[in-house]
Write the structure tokens for this entry.
Amino acid sequence: MQGNRQRMEVLQNAVARIDRRHAAFARHERLRADGGAGVFGIDAVDAAFKDGFPVFALHEVRCSLTRDIGAATGFLAGLMAGRMKHLQGRIVWICDPACRLDGGQLFPAGLSMFGLDPARLLVVRPADLKTALWASDEAAKCGDLAGVVFQIKGNQPSFDMTATRRLMLKAQHNGLFVCILRQGGDEEANAAATRWHVRTQPSAADPHLEKGIGLLRLELTLERNRNGHTGHWTIAWNQLEHGFEHVPTDYVDRPAAPFDRPDGAPQMGQVMAFERAS
Amino acid sequence: MNGRPDAPPIAAIAKIKNAMRLVAVDACGHMAGLRTEQTLSDARALFPDLDVFDHDAQADAALLAAVAAWCDRYTPLVALERLPESVSGSCAGLFLDISGCAHLFGGEEAMLADVTARLRVGGLMAQAAIADTPGAAWAFARYGEKPVIAPGEHGKDLLDLPLAGLRLEGEMLDMLRKLGLRTVGCIAGLPRAPLAARFGNGLLLRLDQALGRVEEAISPRLPVPELSSERIFAEPIALQEDIERTAAQLAGNLRQRLDERQLGARQLELKLFRVDGHVVTIAVRAASPVYHADRIVTLFRERIAGFHEDLDAGFGFDLIRLNIVESEPRQVEQADLGGNTGKNHGEAFSSLVDRLGARLGTDRVQRFVAADTHIPERSYSLVAPATGRAAAADQAVFWREDGAVEDGGGPQVLTRPVVLFDRPEQVEAVAEVPDGPPIRFHWRKTLYKITRSEGPERIACEWWRDGRGGHSRDYFRVEDEEGHRFWIFRQGLFERETRNPKWFMHGLFA
């Protein structure tokens, strides 16, 4: 009786292991068939990648100022919605407690406008950075997820090369899209495959309203790319197509700043958010 | 028991009926003639050097609750005695329903001796009695001589006890005493109708309850767990590894019962009884029914790791109990060869939710649920993620996908921000009067000049929630020179609701 039960358990474990392997394999296959893997979604940006955009890897999206966090979040939401349309599973959004103080929190109605279903999100709000790191590690281990977002404020010493490399390995191994969303932080060397810097740009003129807000535009800089070259684009959100599209620079009101070499004297000091006024 | 042999008697005092009176005295004081309800001045006349301190009812209640928690080791049914102050003889007491438990401790006498002996070691003098009915046990504990009344015997023995044993009001007792009725036996034989007419139904009800003619239920302080398994240690254990191993064994004991009923646990608690009487309860919730011993142990391991301080084992735990507080039928799903299990999330996801919830606390791992309101900060709520049955019930709540491609008719602009501030932040804005958009505003000590704006989108206040005098909000989407897009609103309609409308920053667009 006892022996039977043990044998039963061994067999069940074996079946579960095979199931898991099949699942991971099937994800890769399905995504490749749908064109999800290896495509960023904007032709101009895709040209920067040699072997296509690595979806299952660690990425980083950052904004230099806290007030740009809306732009960075929107960019990430649009990117994830496009890449994960055919991918089953939830998205875990881990938020470092420091972000909430001056960065507000996710608004589901706004996310759903970017095509990201808020019901897919699992919002994790740890009490301190240490547990936030632990939570992101745990989440990246889980093969059932579609993606993991780790929102962090500034450049934290404890979130270093080792921690990011661990995330990167787990993302590749488990077939996950893992992204660091850095709020108000500087460039920093880490193990991420790509690092994007997002800044707002004045929107296009609205064809119907005199002072209306037209297509929203973002200035996107690919600061780091492990597999290809870097680049700089202005992108706009197309609500009809539900995706970002490239806006050729000659339509933009002012020339783009150089992205791969310093322009003028470097800024002294650091831009910081003041304490909240109310 | 006197811990202060050379010191004067000690008493707790409180202000009752406009005088400082004794509320409790120690044994030494009682022997010397001090009584409760005596005024402090009378007591001082007897004992000039009487030690007094203020009565702290909350501390008493906390102590009683701690003792009640400790009594869980004997039976899951422990009730606090809740009698009005005016009842004669009411004091801190506990009812333990030990039906079916006594044999585990070697019979009723042995159990009673164990309870009182352990409490005495803890520094508490306890009077206890075992009888067929709660009323009889109450009476024998206070006024009886035999601690254990054999089944069926309580009716006979009760007759000799004073009437105060029936949990009666002080005034009623005085009246009965004036009539010469002093023991339970005096009224047990009297005709019932005149007694009821004279003293009301309360007297007869208490008599019937004590004699067992009327059923009296005690109300346990905790719900009874659905399943529970425990282990008593001859030598207390303190190491966390030992606790985990014990938890695994207990979970293994429960596995067979769960298998028979095809159930899984949703809510579990591990009770650690420390030798000094302190009880540590570790409660965990699982996102989906769990029954594997290792998954159950993982939950507790993460929960303990999530504590900000180590588990205080003191001199060790001598009893560990695993309770299943809530269970649910298991769901069995078979995966096809492609690895798809019908649902979006499988075992690994619920296990992740469990681990995160156990370590961080379940209120920190949440998902969005839409709410039926237009006020932005109320339009969603964060709830604990549920998988399985509970998730199916939530299917009714869905997101209005304003921007979905499929419906085609949605707005072609983004009307809602992606980031919302929990609390709208007040800004100083210069705007067109009466209801124009802001021209420039100060937010977090920075000036923003607005170049483009759209609005207003008016969201009226919910008078059924906020009451009269709530202000409408006019939301504007504005963009500054650098392209930052904000969601900003004016609270109150100019001249109709307020003279000086205030402006608030509420969200950031992409």
